[in-house]
Amino acid sequence: MSEDFVRDIRLPKELSAELDMLLYQVKEEHNDLVIVVDGKEGLGKSRTGILMAAYCAQKLNSSFSIDNIHYSTEEYMRSCSKLGRYSVHILDEAGVILHRASSNTKGARRFTKFLQVCREGYNQVHILILPAYHILDGYVVNWRCKFVLHMYGESVEDDSVPTGKRLKRGAFKVYPSTNSLTEMWNLYQDRKVFIYPKQWYMHTRIPNCKVLSDAETAALYAKKDNWRNEFIEGDVKDGNVRAAAIMRKAFAFIVEKTDVIPNAKEVKKALGVTLSTAYEVIKHYNNTRSSVPSSEPSLSSSESSPTISDGEE
């Protein structure tokens, strides 16, 4: 970070007071702190998470940089172990890794176990960023999360834009870890609807602060782009998490364009993935076609496929 750059770390008074109380428990009562930041894309979740993380690090007298921001559970856990007590960590795009449907994958299982054992030994702050808290594994929501900070957008009048209105970002509500939060989580598991509790105890807006320098911001974008590219290629080094849906679409595209059902080796060559991933793509593709009439072509299963462990959906 440039020596001339000074971080602007300002939080709303209500939020800073809440964090101060929880951070006291971290430092003086040998506890830790797990916070979930959720909301639709483009509403400032990552910026808010970074601002809160920098504030927590400042209060705990620990360092904070883009090295504390992670996109994989393996990298996250290594960093927690390396940086030790009172460090602050962000798991961005946590919904990809910790989605309840993926809770049996190797990476998700290891991360859940890590959260179970890290409280007293590390006394750290963990900030998870994702689209909706409802998709998290139940252990994180019901037992570890102190509160959910839900970001949302507000439509405001603006004559400078053609539509006359624009989306104003930064508004949020805070929901404490109560039975109401758990009930809404359970409702999603039953009916697949995203509903938030009626009761919230904080409703305000995040100020437009600059926590990272321009150089740090560029480096963070590069870090995220690298992770995204690896994920799309189906080779994320995070407990064998696979971009199965993306691979499935890509494979369907091949079938549609060539009108030929390729085998695993051809899929490997066409998509630039490993042979193991190619077999996994075939498996998922056949699963999606299982309900079509028998005249519909499906992939040949004559090839002996290797065992895919933990990476399966």
Q: What does this protein look like?
A:
By secondary structure, the protein is α/β, with parallel strands linked by helices. It is built from twelve helices and seven strands. Strand 2 (69-70), helix 3 (73-83) and strand 3 form a beta-alpha-beta unit. Helix 10 (244-258) crosses helix 12 and helix 11 packs across helix 12.
| Helix and strand element order | HEHEHEHHHEHEEHEHHHH
**Helix content bin:** 40-55%
What percentage of amino acids are in beta strands?
15-25%
Number of helices: 12
The first-to-last residue Cα distance is 40 Å
> Strand tally, please?
7
Radius of gyration: 22 Å
Shape: globular
Which fold name fills CATH's third level, the topology of the largest domain?
Rossmann fold
Named CATH architecture of the largest domain: 3-Layer(aba) Sandwich
Strand line-up across the major sheet: 2-3-4-1-5-6-7
CATH class value of the largest domain: Alpha Beta
What composes the largest sheet?
A: 7 strands, mixed
Number of domains: 2
Describe this structure in a few short sentences.
This protein is of the alpha/beta class.
Give short descriptive properties of this protein:
alpha/beta, Rossmann fold, 2 domains, 7 strands, 44% helix, globular, disordered C terminus
Secondary structure elements and pairings:
Elements: H1 13-28, E1 33-38, H2 45-59, E2 69-70, H3 73-83, E3 88-91, H4 94-98, H5 106-117, H6 119-122, E4 125-130, H7 138-144, E5 145-157, E6 165-176, H8 179-191, E7 202-205, H9 214-232, H10 244-258, H11 264-271, H12 275-288
Parallel strand pairs: 1-4, 1-5, 2-3, 3-4
Antiparallel strand pairs: 5-6, 6-7
Helix pairs in contact: 10-12, 11-12
